[in-house]
Specification:
CATH class of the largest domain: Alpha Beta
Number of helices: 10
Radius of gyration: 23 Å
CATH topology of the largest domain: Creatine Amidinohydrolase
Strand content: 15-25%
Distance between the termini: 45 Å
Structural class: alpha+beta
Length: about 375
């Protein structure tokens, strides 16, 4: 993972007047250290970086996180943390407020107040938010290559699954086949629970695969992705089990045009709400005004949903190296819906699309 990420974090900590940060989110822990074990905490100060973990993972931690001082948590994480905090003279400890449970916070506070605890009695706890997540928004070239590999797996899975989309097939069977294919081709697993929503259920933006059997005339929304090297892909395609109707064709063409406008206009320097408007303004000019019920997209990387969020109320300025989804959709309750989604790398003068599955209106 390199020392650069730790250095960047320390700069952000200095800007926020944070002398020590306890990192508990698994994605943030992996991003900074490379450690893939199930249990561990990072303690980062201005001069040192510790990885405190269970003894089951000590050998693994030493191999995966060479830039960290590996600490055996022993029988009690809080007791060991207290020892390190005291040894380093830490007076103010920042916690990742978006990831720490109230129970953990309460236990730390009780330990600080306990005369028998190792934690310094004058220790001050401070909330911190988005320090590591902000760094993760700008992808390094190696990260983009892993995202590209994950995207390629999703592209291949879409081509593979087309022959399974027939009347009588169950949504859950299609989802299982998609996930099995991606695993056979090298994925560590699905990026998220696979969405297969057919017929009237295609109007559900997050319609996870159920026991409904596909029928002739159905719109079928497939939203899925692969996990590869710790990084996720996210792809959505909508197909029709023929015969196709004029209304289905019109709906599909509207969504595809909206997505093409967004992809053509996406670039560094835009505000997130301006990127969202590239697709939303077009949809609002059609008979489907008010039917685009979510934001244009989101960042994707170690988490399937991370910053930046492309939405009508977000002021984030897009920067080169951000990887986002572009996924306009139109949903007509009780009738059906269409969504088309691709992943793209924001560049100074445009974007580079990572997913390349067929986007023509496929009538199966």
């Amino acid at each position: 993972m390199g020392q650069a990420r730790i250095s960047n974090l320390r700069r952000r900590m200095q800007e926020e007047n944070i002398e020590a940060l306890l990192v508990s989110a698994p994605e943030n822990r992996f991003y900074l250290s490379g450690f893939t074990g199930d249990e561990g905490w990072l303690l980062v100060t201005s001069g040192k970086a510790f990885l405190i973990t269970d003894r089951r993972f000590l050998e693994q931690a030493a191999a995966e996180a060479p830039n960290f001082i590996i600490v055996d948590r022993g029988d009690s994480f809080l007791a060991r943390l207290g020892e390190v905090v005291a040894e380093e003279g830490i007076r103010i400890l920042a916690l990742e407020e978006d990831h720490v449970t109230f129970n953990f916070y309460r236990r730390v506070m009780e330990a600080v107040a306990d005369p028998k605890s190792n934690l310094p009695k004058n220790l001050i706890l401070k909330p911190a938010s988005g320090l590591v997540e902000g760094l993760r928004e700008i992808k390094e070239e190696g990260e983009i290559q892993l995202l590209r590999r994950a995207a390629n797996l999703a592209d291949a899975a879409f081509e593979y699954i087309l022959s399974f989309l027939k009347p009588g097939a169950l949504e859950i069977e299609i989802a299982a086949e998609l996930e099995y294919f991606m695993r056979r081709k090298g994925a560590e697993g699905p990026a998220f629970p696979t969405i297969v929503a057919s017929g009237p259920r295609s109007s559900l933006p997050h319609g996870r695969a159920g026991k409904r059997a596909l029928q002739k005339g159905d719109l079928v929304v497939l939203d899925f992705g692969a996990l590869f090297g710790g990084y996720n892909s996210d792809l959505t395609r909508t197909v029709v089990l023929g015969p196709v109707t004029p209304e289905q064709t019109r709906l599909y063409r509207t969504v595809r045009t909206a997505q093409e406008l967004a992809l053509q206009g996406l670039k560094a320097g835009l505000k997130a709400r301006e990127a969202d408007a590239l697709a939303r303004n077009y949809i609002e000019s059609t008979d489907y005004a008010g039917r685009f019920a979510h934001g244009l997209g989101h960042g994707v990387g170690l988490s399937i949903h991370e910053g930046p969020t492309l939405s009508h109320n977000r002021e984030t300025i897009l920067q080169a190296g951000m990887v986002v989804t572009v996924e306009p959709g139109i949903y007509l309750p009780g009738w059906g819906g269409v969504r088309i989604e691709d992943m793209a790398v924001v560049e100074e003068d445009g974007c580079a699309i990572l997913t390349h599955a067929d986007k023509s209106l496929l009538v199966l």
